[in-house]
Design goal:
single chain, 548 residues, alpha+beta, 7-stranded mixed β-sheet, 11 helices, elongated
């Protein structure tokens, strides 16, 4: 039986093509499907404008939302006008609902500042862009990046502080409440009028109830020295506080449900001592600067000296300039002083501002004068008080500063006054008085044996001496004599009055002899004490204050 040879079927042209290209076609379909899958998952491209590149790298840096990557940086190019850079990023499909008007982008990078260290995670992962937004519909593809992290108002609140100087406060300076950090300074800038410094601080939400309209902010002290109740306290702030500084604030704890008005401005004090002093006025925008001319010596009036009204500090001296007056041969002074006009606001008359009431007070006689602040050193301050001037004066507006009317004050220190007193006393005939009293005591034994003419002459001498003492005690300068000398002179006056009263009586009575003897002894002792006191003052005029 013979084997059957299989027949070879002749292939058609179609089968030949199908057998060769079937695999590539399948591969192509798979590739197309994968490409479709890839591009269907891709989100849109967006552009973000920043001032400068902070370490972003194309193909590596990411965009994150809630710490989840939702996009990648494809290009970082310079803008056509050269003002900043343009970041082109491909976003994931899931990020599309967040690309709207609420979207905020900023660069996260390692940063070391006075507020601490931030962005440490970028040391490993690299610099990236962070997104904050709210879910909605996609409306934008071009955005302007922020220069600083975006802060949610739901997580905290901003408050406006105003100070005469920056006091070394910088962006990032921490804010403390009871030594706990509760926020930081967000902005530090010159005020719009150029006369003060505005500080915008951010306070975390949980600490906002502790801030009221009566809250006081001050610069944290590095060294505190206090002496109270017989105890001396010396405290130094922690090293971290000394290096980075800080701002503290106080709280009364009252009305925690009452919010601070949005336009309220807090005053920033330079230390806790100044903040603790009794302060009136609102400060901030109510502070006005005035120019004052003084034709008397203001050598001991210093920058930052107080401006007072009714014994309250209402301002301070900002600048002092001196010039020589050819006519009077004196150094005249120009003083620029800031005054918080809000203290002159009358709550019962809300139709007039504090500044308007201050101008009215000037028309009614309010004047500025330099007065003695420290009686020992003679330091001066500016006092606002009403005078008896008949002429009407007004606050005059100038090109740069408003002119405030002034009068001559009393700016002499106690030492200069004491020197004048000593000079006045030295002109009195005290030596003759002492010698006369010594002679009267030594010759008293034979006094009663003399005739009436001698007694009458003695009375005339004593009356003359008593008149001289009365004039001395009644002199205005006598009221300024230190206590010890004043007491001695009044004792002398009392003794002479007693002597005169006795001598006017019956000189033949035994009572006259005893009283006159005791009186003259007291007079002699008072005279010797006065003489010793004068020698001491002549040798060292300030010995009554500082001792020998």
């Amino acid at each position: 039986m013979s084997k059957k040879i299989p027949e070879v079927q002749e292939s058609t042209k179609f089968n030949f093509v199908l057998s060769i290209w079937i695999v590539p076609l399948i591969a192509l379909l798979i590739a197309l499907w994968l490409a479709f899958q890839y591009y269907s998952e891709l989100g849109p491209k967006i552009e973000i404008i920043f001032k400068s590149n902070e370490g972003l790298k194309a193909g590596q840096s990411q965009i994150k939302y809630k710490d989840v990557p939702i996009g990648k940086i494809e290009k970082v190019v310079l803008r056509s006008d050269g003002d900043g850079i343009k970041v082109i990023a491909r976003m994931d499909k899931e990020a599309i609902p967040y690309l709207n008007e609420d979207a905020k982008f900023w660069i996260v990078k390692p940063e070391v500042g006075i507020g601490g260290v931030s962005g440490l995670e970028t040391i490993i992962s690299g610099t990236y862009i962070k997104l904050y937004s709210k879910k909605g519909e996609m409306k934008k593809k071009k955005f302007i990046g922020l220069q600083k992290p975006y802060r949610l108002l739901e997580d905290g609140e901003y408050f406006h502080l105003n100070a005469s100087s920056a006091f070394n406060v910088k962006k990032g300076t921490p804010i403390f409440f009871k030594n706990m950090q509760v926020g930081y300074a967000e902005y530090v800038t010159i005020s719009l009028d150029g006369k003060s410094v505005d500080v915008i601080v951010y306070i975390e939400k949980s600490y906002i109830p502790y801030i009221h309209t009566d809250t006081k902010f001050w610069i944290q002290s590095t060294v505190d020295i206090d002496y109270a109740n017989g105890q001396f306290d010396f405290n130094i702030a922690p090293l971290a506080h000394i290096v980075r500084g800080g701002i503290e604030f106080s709280s009364s704890g009252e009305d925690i449900t009452k919010k601070v008005p949005y336009n309220h401005i807090f005053r920033l004090y330079k230390n806790s001592s100044v903040a603790a002093d009794k302060q009136i006025g609102k400060g901030g925008k109510a502070v006005r600067e005035y120019l004052m001319h003084f034709n008397e010596s203001i050598a001991k009036l210093n920058i930052d000296a107080s401006v007072r009204y009714d014994n309250f500090d209402i301002g301070s001296v900002k600048d002092i300039s001196l010039s020589y007056n050819r006519g009077s041969h004196q150094m005249t002074g120009k003083v620029i002083a800031s005054i918080d006009t809000s203290i002159f606001f009358d709550p019962s008359d809300r139709n007039h501002t504090g500044e308007e009431n201050l101008e009215q007070a000037v028309r009614e006689g309010l004047r500025a004068s330099v007065q003695e602040y420290d009686p020992i050193s003679g330091l001066l301050y500016i006092d606002l008080s009403f005078t008896d001037e008949n002429r009407s004066r007004e606050i005059v507006s100038g090109e740069r500063y408003t002119l405030f009317p002034t009068v001559t004050g009393q700016g002499a220190g106690i030492m200069s006054g004491l020197t004048g007193i000593v000079d006045a006393i030295q002109k009195l005939p005290l030596d003759e008085l002492v010698d006369s009293m010594d002679k009267a005591v030594s010759g008293f034994t034979g006094l009663l044996e003399e005739n009436k003419e001698t007694t009458r002459q003695l009375l005339l001498d004593l009356d003359e001496t008593l008149d001289g003492i009365n004039k001395l005690v009644g002199n205005k300068e006598f009221a300024r004599i230190p206590t010890e000398l004043n007491k001695t002179m009044r004792a002398l006056q009392k003794s002479l009055k007693s002597l005169d009263s006795v001598m006017q009586g019956n000189s033949n009575q035994s009572l006259l002899s005893s009283q006159l003897t005791e009186t003259l002894k007291e007079v002699a002792k008072a005279s010797r004490d006065t003489q010793k006191m004068m020698r001491k003052l002549d040798r060292k005029p300030n010995s009554l204050i500082f001792g020998d």
